[in-house]
């Protein structure tokens, strides 16, 4: 019996792989290595229970044959589908990026699960499916769902296809709506962006937007813990959970200041204009985690603690990368 | 200045084309003729303001070049995107049907609008985006959106992509969430299905499910009127409206009895089991039309009146088709 992880060399996928391998599972990990990196798999790549293939999951023929081959030797009972585009602005400029890397990967995952009778799917969705709900505390039943970016749109499209599959041929589907997740191995996101900008210009940090955007952040250690808690305890067949910190979040300004203080204390911070960093950026965002709390889980770190921990980790990661 | 209608030879598209031509617009109508039929265009096909091409809008190259060619001669200012799969069970059996005919047509429409700076889009969405909300009166802000069929999933995926486009490059997007629409030219649906079954076996009508499914129906004349009312009067940039009848609807059993009474009074009605006709069928469904009523519109016909009118029209259509 084994678990398939798509996007295994990415930020979330690599953390999941480590945890599954540590708990004795056999893992088939797939990644196109377009945004993920083999270095992220350093803790598992030599383990005999970990099987890695460089596969673009949006390439139906290559993907399906790799899964069929593996399944014949070690039946897959569960899929953790983490492969997706993670570069939101890239998808705003070119809609085919999220179509291919986020939606078509999901479509192909569902097709192969249907064909091989694999019945349990866990999916990395996003708070971006909600769009801009102003000051409303957003719960899992909040509507309308009007995503502002193709990233959010193709996450919602994926959820929709999974919902239809749950009605038709899956036994269980777990849809995790993440907010901003931080930690290592960092592959993208505002913290890595700031740390890397300061490596190039140690005396100056340019911030997109006026810095007033404020969001909740979840540390990846809490994210993984929360996903597994839901996997073990939730009862619905098609099961959707907000997963995040419930605090008011941390502003981009405060993040910029923390990164500067830790990475390059003498740098001057220069802000742009407007309250959105890019098309599709939601300026403020507040989650209701009532459903998840009722299931008996809450994150250990609040947004500020998660930011502090992740800044330290990312500075260390980038030093080692030199 | 002209209007592009995709799926122009289908049920809704052909009614729209007729209305636009009557009100003096120039129309480019595209249809793959896979489910639509040239016969449906009898009222407009000879009009010099109507320009028809057989194009599969999911074929990006063919579709985009046809639109670019036409736009160069008669600039398109508005797109009414009606092309979609309308066969829900077909899409349950093979997810690629709704992917191609519903979602990829929307994706291509958005790509060509972005490229040509066409700023206004009207889209035929569906009550199927909501999934099963039990006895709740469903409004436009109801959640969660968990469609039960690939049909509903790819309508929701289309809405999501349109929402992101409205944030990025469209001026206005009108998303109409239809319930069951009836009338002529009937190309699919329960009424046509029953009428045609009785043509084959005039003494017996087999009904999928136990007949208890109850839904609201809207006559196509009301649908078109409602869509244009929203187009003229709604103010939001990304504008989503439920469009339907607000009554409790009519059961499949009552519909079967009406069709038999009108088409073949001696036929015996034989019911299946279960309260769903097929995977993805929502057994009961109740719309809130408060938003639309606030905009000053309500359908002229209730569900029963719409059914009665449509049965008469469809029996006549099918007699003429002999």
Largest sheet of chain A: 7 strands, parallel
Mean pLDDT of chain A: 94
Structural class of chain A: alpha/beta
Which residue ranges of chain A are poorly predicted, with pLDDT under 50 across at least 5 consecutive positions?
none
Could you give a quick summary of the protein structure above?
Chain A has 322 residues and is α/β, with parallel strands linked by helices. The first copy, chain A, is 42% helix and 20% strand. Chain A contains ten helices and 15 strands.
Structure description:
- Two copies of one chain form a homodimer.
- The longest helix of chain A is centred in the first third of the chain and has 22 residues, at 95-116.
- The mean pLDDT of chain A is 94.
- The first copy, chain A, is built from ten helices and 15 strands.
- In chain A, strands 3-2-1-4-5-7-12 form a seven-stranded parallel beta sheet, sandwiched between helices.
- By secondary structure, chain A is of the alpha/beta class.
- In chain A, 42% of the residues lie in helices and 20% in strands.
- Chain A is globular, with a radius of gyration of 19 Å.
- In chain A, helix 2 (60-73) packs parallel to helix 4, helix 4 (95-116) packs parallel to helix 5 and helix 6 (190-200) packs across helix 8 (252-263).
- Chains A and B meet through helix 4 and helix 5 of A and helix 4 and helix 5 of B.
């Amino acid at each position: 019996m084994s678990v398939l992880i798509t996007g295994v060399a990415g930020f979330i996928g690599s953390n999941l792989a480590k945890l599954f391998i540590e708990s004795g599972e056999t893992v088939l990990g797939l990644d196109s290595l377009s945004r993920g990196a083999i270095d992220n798999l350093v803790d598992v790549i030599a383990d005999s229970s970990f099987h890695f293939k460089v596969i673009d999951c949006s390439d139906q023929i290559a993907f399906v044959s790799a899964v069929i081959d593996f399944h014949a030797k070690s039946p897959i009972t569960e899929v953790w589908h983490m492969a997706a585009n993670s570069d939101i602005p890239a998808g705003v400029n070119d809609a085919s990026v999220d179509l291919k890397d986020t939606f078509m990967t999901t479509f192909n995952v569902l097709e192969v699960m249907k064909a091989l009778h694999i019945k349990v799917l866990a999916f990395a969705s996003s708070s971006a499916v909600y769009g801009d709900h102003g000051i409303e505390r957003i719960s899992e039943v909040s509507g309308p769902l009007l995503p502002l970016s193709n990233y959010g749109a193709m996450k919602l499209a994926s959820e929709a296809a999974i919902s239809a599959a749950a009605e038709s041929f899956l036994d269980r589907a777990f849809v995790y709506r993440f907010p901003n997740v931080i930690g290592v191995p960092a592959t993208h996101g505002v913290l890595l962006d700031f740390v890397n900008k300061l490596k190039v210009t140690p005396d100056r940090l340019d911030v997109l937007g006026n810095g007033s955007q404020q969001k909740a952040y979840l540390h990846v250690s809490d994210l993984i813990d929360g996903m597994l808690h839901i996997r073990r305890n939730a009862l619905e067949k098609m099961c959707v959970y907000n997963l995040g910190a419930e605090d008011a979040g941390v502003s981009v300004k405060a993040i910029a200041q923390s990164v500067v203080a830790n990475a390059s204390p003498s740098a001057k911070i220069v802000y742009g204009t407007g309250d959105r960093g890019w098309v599709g950026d939601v300026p403020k965002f507040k989650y209701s985690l009532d459903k998840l709390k009722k299931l008996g889980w809450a994150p250990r770190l609040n947004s500020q603690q998660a930011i502090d921990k992740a800044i330290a980790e990312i500075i260390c990661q980038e030093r080692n990368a030199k």
